[in-house]
C-alpha cells in the first residue's frame, strides 16, 4: 500500500457553502497568526525548566494522552502495548518503537474525531512530518520524528516560541514546592509559563490522603491546619506564594457545582469532623465541605485577585480495574449530570454581584448550556462561561456551545478558548480548530445579515485572543486586578471597532 501524505486543507472546518466560506476565510485571516493565550492546562513545567529534548514521539504524543488511551482500551487493547506502565511494575511493557507501531496500526480508529485533527496538525505543523501514521509508515515515521525531536528548534522552549504562545499556565497542588517554576523564572528565558492553584488534594475530604496532605500543608506554611482558622490561613499563604510565582487563577475539579455558605461556627465544626482522620464523615458532609471551600476560595480572591475556575461533573476513574492498574488519567473519566442554578446559589447570594471577582464555569453536561449556564452568566457579574471542555472540545461541541449560549449570554460573558491539555504539541492544533470553528460560526451570522463583517471580525479576535487575556488578567498582577468599587472599564468597554479591549 502506498503511504499517504497528511493533507491540511486550507479551508478545513469552514462552511461548505461558497459565499459563507469566503467570509470565514476573511475572518480567519484576522486571527490565524494571533499569539496563543493558554491560561489553563496540565503541561509539565519541568519541560521548560530543563529544556531537554523530548526522547521519542511515543512518550510525547501517545503514552500520556487519555483521548488515545481510551479509544484503544475500548477496542480491547492492553495499555501496556502503548507503553503505559502498570503501577505495580508487573507485565511486559512495549518499547517506545513497539508502542508507536501499535498506535500507527490503529490510527484509523480516530477518523472523524478531534484527536485525528490535533494529531495531523501536530505532526505536520509542529514536527514537519508528512506521512499519515499506518502500519506501513510506523518505523519510518518513528525514526524521522525521533531525529526531528533531537533538533534544537523542537526543544520545549523553542516550541513555545515557535507556536507563538504568549502565556501558558500549568496546574499545581498547594503542596508543590514550585521549584520548576522558579527555575524557569531564574533562567532568563522570556517565555511566560506560570502556575495555577489546584487545591483539590487539600479541600476534598474524599481524597485518600486528605489528612496527611493537611499535615504537609502545615509543614509548608507553619500554620496549625488542625484548626479551621489555621487551615484557612495556610491556604491563603499558599495562594499568595502561587501569585508570587505568576499565578492568575485557581482551579477546582469538584464532583458537582454545589456551594455552601455556613457560619464560621458551622464551618469549623464540619472541618473538625472531616479532619478527624476517622473517615466516618458522610457523603453529604464531604459535599458540603467542598461547597464551603469553593465559597472560601472565592472569598480569598477578594484579597489576592485570583480568578476562580470550576470544572465539575466528572466521574473520575470510573473503571476501578484500570485505575488500580494504571492510576489516574488513563481514559476512564466520564461526564455526569450537573446542575448550577440551585447549586451555586449560596455562593452567588454572597458574591454574585461583588465587583472585581471572576468565577469561570465549565461543564461536561451540555444540557445545562441554555437551561442554566447561559442565563446565569447573562445576569451575574461574577460569572463567565468557560470553553467547551474535554468531551466537547471538538468541532461539533464548539458549534453547539455557540448556538446554545450566545443568544442568552452573548460573547462577552465567555472566556474565549481554553485548551486544557497536557499535550504540548496539541496546543496550537486545538487553537487552530477553535479559531476556524468560530470563524465559520460568525461567517454564518454575517451571511444571514445578523452581524456586519466588521463586527464579526472584532468578535473573532475577542474569541481567539482578547477574552482569555482579559478574563485571566494576563497583563496585570493579580492584586492589582481587584477593584474595590466597580468592575474595571476594560471588562466591557469597546475600542470603537466593536471589540472589547
Written overview of the protein:
- By secondary structure, the chain is mainly α.
- It folds into two domains: 53-154, uronate isomerase, domain 2, chain A (Orthogonal Bundle); 164-491, Metal-dependent hydrolases (TIM Barrel), CATH 3.20.20.
- The protein is 46% helix and 6% strand.
- The protein has helices at residues 18-31, 46-50, 57-61, 66-74, 96-105, 114-126, 138-149, 156-162, 179-186, 200-203, 210-221, 228-244, 264-275, 283-304, 320-326, 345-351, 368-377, 395-409, 426-447, 453-471; strands spanning 36-38, 165-169, 193-194, 249-252, 307-310, 314-315, 334-335, 359-361, 383-385.
- The strands form three sheets. Strands 4-5-8-9 form a four-stranded parallel beta sheet, covered by helices on one side.
- Strand 8, helix 17 and strand 9 (383-385) form a beta-alpha-beta unit.
- Helix 1 packs across helix 19 (426-447) and helix 17 packs across helix 18 (395-409).
- The radius of gyration is 23 Å and the shape is globular.
- The relative contact order is 0.13.
| Mean of all residue-level pLDDT scores | 94
CATH architecture verdict of the largest domain = Alpha-Beta Barrel
Oligomer: single chain
What are the low-pLDDT stretches, counting only 5+ consecutive residues below 50? 480-491, 496-501
Number of helices: 20
Helix % is 40-55%
How many strand segments? 9
Order of helices and strands: HEHHHHHHHEHEHHHEHHEEHEHEHEHHH
Q: So what's the overall shape?
A: globular
The helix/strand class is mainly alpha
Largest β-sheet summary: 4 strands, parallel
When the domains are counted, the total is: 2
Q: What distance lies between the first and last C-alpha atoms, to the nearest angstrom?
A: 53 Å
Order of adjacent strands in the largest pleated sheet:
4-5-8-9
Radius of gyration: 23 Å
* CATH level-3 fold name of the largest domain: TIM Barrel
Name the CATH class of the largest domain: Alpha Beta
